[in-house]
Design goal:
This protein is an alpha+beta fold and 108 residues long. It has one domain: Gamma Fibrinogen, Chain A, domain 1, CATH 3.90.215. It has two helices and eight strands; from the N terminus they run ββββαββαββ. A hairpin with a 5-residue loop joins β7 and β8.
Amino acid sequence: MQAEDFSYTAGFKFINVNNQNVEVYCDEEGFTMIHARFYDSSPYEHVWNEYVAGFGAPGQNYWLGLDNIHFMTQQKPYTLKINARTNDGFEAEATRANFALGPSSVSN
């Protein structure tokens, strides 16, 4: 995600999300990584509460968390950029302006 009024330095940094310091990775274009899934053998099965709170660490299998993303996108406009790459090397990218995420709810 990238805020419309962003200023950044690429790399790992801490940002304030709902009065908590949260470590994130920002790329060279100023996008804050909210999710990463790498091809490795580590398990990637999580319960709903982990998706709400977030898990992993930037630079590894990682999810920023629904509550963190919701809080961030309620503060100012963001652009969402999705990069995908398959095992056979196919790559795709898509962007969506004015991205916002509503509050999390209980999964049934």
